[in-house]
Write a structure and sequence with these properties.
Layout: E1 2-4, E2 9-10, E3 13-16, E4 21-24, E5 28-30, E6 33-43, E7 46-48, E8 53-61, E9 64-66, E10 69-79, E11 83-85, E12 88-99, E13 103-106, E14 109-116, E15 119-122, E16 125-135, E17 141-142, E18 147-151, E19 154-158, E20 164-165, E21 168-177, E22 184-185, E23 194-203, E24 208-209, E25 218-219, E26 225-226, E27 230-231, E28 234-238
Parallel strand pairs: 1-4, 2-5, 3-6, 4-6, 5-7, 6-8, 7-9, 8-10, 9-11, 10-12, 11-13, 12-14, 13-15, 14-16, 15-17, 16-18, 16-19, 17-20, 18-21, 19-21, 20-22, 21-23
Antiparallel strand pairs: 23-28, 24-27, 25-26
Length: about 240
């Protein structure tokens, strides 16, 4: 174990191999690179600056603020404290996961594919990129400024369901899966809920199915087809064979 104290700032490269530990007594800043390969960071709060990169897997035993890039790859990265993300937190694919008992407060971007086991309070962007990005904690929330995104080839999965959504769900050919759970949508403040792909939600107030959003076919008595705007309270399900 290497221990340091008193105004530590890293502008170079720190490598943490399996079984190794860097213990910094006070809060410290990373402006360079920390490469984790099964090692541990502990002590004060880790402040990853806008130029900082923390990558790999292992344990961060304490709170983290990330304004740079936190990249989870090679396995599981566990954060024992809270994680305040205003930068980018990236998961590198299936089998990679970000875990911890604390809350991930996101005002930046959480993206990629893998699993986030921390409870998420999202006011930024959660984006599935080429694969499934799942969130397995209870009581995840998406505030009025939050956006859930899944492009082509991406699937955003809330395995415990997203209890409350006040923000935007934007599916550019991808899939949003709320695991069959009901989802309450709060005041939208003029924001749209856009679905181009698969989307399943329960809406207790009002859903507007617009031409550029949800479009259903209605056959006229003469055999022709007409598209119309609907306002449908209650349960809405949109699948590929219903949208155009």
């Amino acid at each position: 174990m290497l221990q340091a104290s008193g105004g530590v700032t890293n502008s170079g490269l720190i490598e943490l191999q399996p079984g190794s530990r860097l213990h910094v007594v006070e809060n410290w800043n990373n402006l360079g690179q920390v490469q984790m390969a099964g090692g541990a960071l502990s002590g004060g709060q880790v402040q990853n600056g806008s130029t900082g990169l923390i990558s790999g897997f292992g344990l961060i035993d304490g709170p983290v603020t990330n304004a740079g890039l936190l990249s989870v790859s090679g396995g599981s990265l566990s954060v024992s404290g809270s994680l305040a993300n205003s930068g980018i937190t990236h998961l590198g694919g299936t089998g990679n996961q970000l875990t911890g008992a604390g809350v991930l407060t996101n005002t930046g971007t959480v993206q990629g594919a893998g699993n986030v086991g921390m409870r998420v309070a999202n006011s930024g962007t959660l984006e599935a990129i080429v694969g499934t990005l799942s969130f397995s904690a209870l009581s995840n929330t998406n505030t009025a400024t939050g956006t859930l995104v899944a492009g082509t080839g991406g699937k955003l999965l809330m395995t415990q369901g997203l209890a409350t959504n006040a923000g935007l769900i934007q599916l550019g050919g991808g899939t949003y899966d709320n695991a069959g759970a009901a989802m309450a949508n709060g005041p939208h403040r003029g924001r749209r809920h856009t679905a181009v792909g698969h989307h399943h939600q329960h809406q207790p107030d009002r859903v507007q199915l617009r031409r550029e959003q949800y479009r259903r076919r209605h056959r006229q008595s003469g055999g022709g087809q007409a598209h119309r705007e609907q306002r449908c309270p209650g349960h809405v399900r949109v699948s590929r064979d219903q949208r155009r």
